[in-house]
Design a protein that fits this description.
- The chain has about 160 residues and is mainly α.
- The chain has 2 domains: about 110 residues, Arc Repressor Mutant, subunit A (Orthogonal Bundle); about 40 residues.
- The chain contains 7 helices and 2 strands; from the N terminus they run H-H-H-H-E-E-H-H-H.
- A two-stranded antiparallel ribbon has the order 1-2.
- Strand 1 and strand 2 form a beta hairpin.
- Helix 1 packs across helix 5.
- The radius of gyration is 18 Å and the shape is globular.
- The two termini are about 25 Å apart.
Amino acid sequence: MKYKDKHIIGKSISILYRYSQIFFNDEFKELSIGKGQYMILMCLYWHKGITQDDIAKKLRIDKANVARGVKKLEEEGYVTREVDPDDKRAYRLYTTEKAIKVQPQIYDSLIKWTNIITDNISNDEIEQFIKTITKLTINACEYSGDVKLANHLKSKE
């Protein structure tokens, strides 16, 4: 690839990200779940009792953004906080019954988005894209010093 064409990768990833945020905002509007909050919920579905700091680390997002997202989810009745018995300054987060009820809708929306963006793309092309984007992600992780995630992704190759 010529150097002048390499900007297309970042630009395309950026466009995909922005359109995904628009899609998910529309999908979750009736649930009062915003673009950053559904990722926190997803994390809580997989890791019950996780702390806000751990969510920030897993999602690689700012702690303040996680705090705002958790606060909104708590206000909407999707999340509860309990004081961590091992560290009274920290809170363990749990999904509520309301969050459990919308879990299938959230997963369906993720599948719907994947189907939208992979329309008219063969399974071979999708598999090759996954391999390539994983390599790009590993390179970014290694550059940023996130060796743990890079090694995790390498083990999945």
